[in-house]
Specification:
The protein is α/β, with parallel strands linked by helices and 325 residues long. The protein has 11 helices and 8 strands. α2 packs across α6 and α6 packs across α8.
Length: 325
């Protein structure tokens, strides 16, 4: 099977690794922190992770640029005068992405969806800088979610003890593997994330001739919804709300994962649902999961992912996976 690439994130948490490797033996990811010369597969307990790296010179100076933003934010907390000074010294923003335009968007209600014109005009922003900052944001939010989860578990244990219950209450269903209930990092800056990830994927050679259709996997329902909303055509190849998933160490896991990849491959090659069904015979395993696989296409998606000439019009295969318990 063609490699699947985790997107539009670069920070892969332990929970996300567990989710992805429950369904697939090997998953690629966009690595912003390792030079292009280091491309070896990372072996984890539950599978393999394949770093997708940018050219070496692309990393030059990026950490210093990221640090300058963090330093400014830490010192000035959004002070307008100091932001103007930073922009004047280091012109990361230009014209329609400058301070005046940002303020105008805020006043007019920046919650509105970015229009195609705005999205195209913002394309000169450095996607690597954006994704590095998004990665930091994701890491900080993961820490916050972990602390909140620990607090909830502590409260549950305390109330259980006060009530004299012998069994400590279990964590909220799904919290340990999917983060806090209802939390989806893909809901934040969805369009900006997808655009930036797509541009960097092109720089890393993912759109090179002979690479075939773009094949992606995400753990974010918000990202899947966004892509479907911007596609002209959607072919639903697989959609299962709940199916037993084999745990790490189960003798049937490898064969079951092969069934998953076979269905995805047949859907992609035939441009239609394969007609096959996943076997649901993991009675000995406690995990259950959600999987959805779609083939998407359309002019707007081509622009969002910045597809080069020979890739324009080709389908993008996207798989959404989650663990339910």
């Amino acid at each position: 099977m063609k490699d699947l690439y985790f997107f539009p994130f670069t920070q892969m948490t332990e929970a996300q690794v567990e989710i992805l490797t429950s369904f697939f033996p090997r998953v690629g990811f966009l690595n912003l922190n390792v030079p292009a010369g280091s491309k070896g597969t990372e072996q984890v307990e539950t599978g393999e992770l394949l770093p997708l790296c940018l050219p070496v010179d692309r990393y030059a100076g990026i950490d210093a640029r990221v640090q300058s933003y963090l330093d400014w934010a830490g010192l000035h907390k959004g002070n307008e005068k100091n932001l103007k000074s930073l922009i004047r010294d280091t012109a990361y923003f230009r014209e329609d992405t400058g301070l005046t335009a940002i303020q105008s968007q805020i006043r007019s209600g920046s919650g509105q969806k970015i229009t195609e014109t705005e999205g195209e005009s913002n394309s000169h922003r450095d996607p690597l800088l954006f994704m590095k900052l998004a990665e930091i944001w994701d890491m900080e939010n993961e820490t916050i979610q972990s602390e909140l989860k620990a607090l909830d578990e502590g409260n549950s244990a305390l109330f259980a003890e006060l009530k004299g219950e012998s069994d400590i209450l279990a964590p909220v269903d799904g919290a340990s593997r999917n983060g806090m209930p209802g939390f989806d990092p893909g809901e934040n800056m969805t369009e900006e994330r997808v655009r930036a990830w797509g541009e960097l994927a092109g720089e890393a050679g993912l759109y090179a001739e002979g690479c075939g259709p773009l094949t992606l996997v995400t753990t974010s329902p918000a990202v899947m919804d966004y892509l479907e909303a911007n596609a002209d055509q959607v072919i639903n190849g697989l959609d299962i709300e709940s199916i037993k998933v084999h745990e790490n160490g189960c003798a049937r896991k490898e064969r079951w994962q092969q069934e998953v990849t076979d269905i995805l491959d047949e859907t992609l090659s035939s441009n239609a649902p394969s007609g096959k069904e996943l076997t649901d015979n993991a009675e000995c395993c406690a995990l259950s999961g959600r999987i959805r696989y779609c083939l998407l296409s359309g002019e707007k998606l081509d622009r969002i992912f910045k597809m080069p000439g020979k890739q324009i019009g080709k389908q993008i295969a996207v798989c959404l996976v989650k663990l339910n318990s």
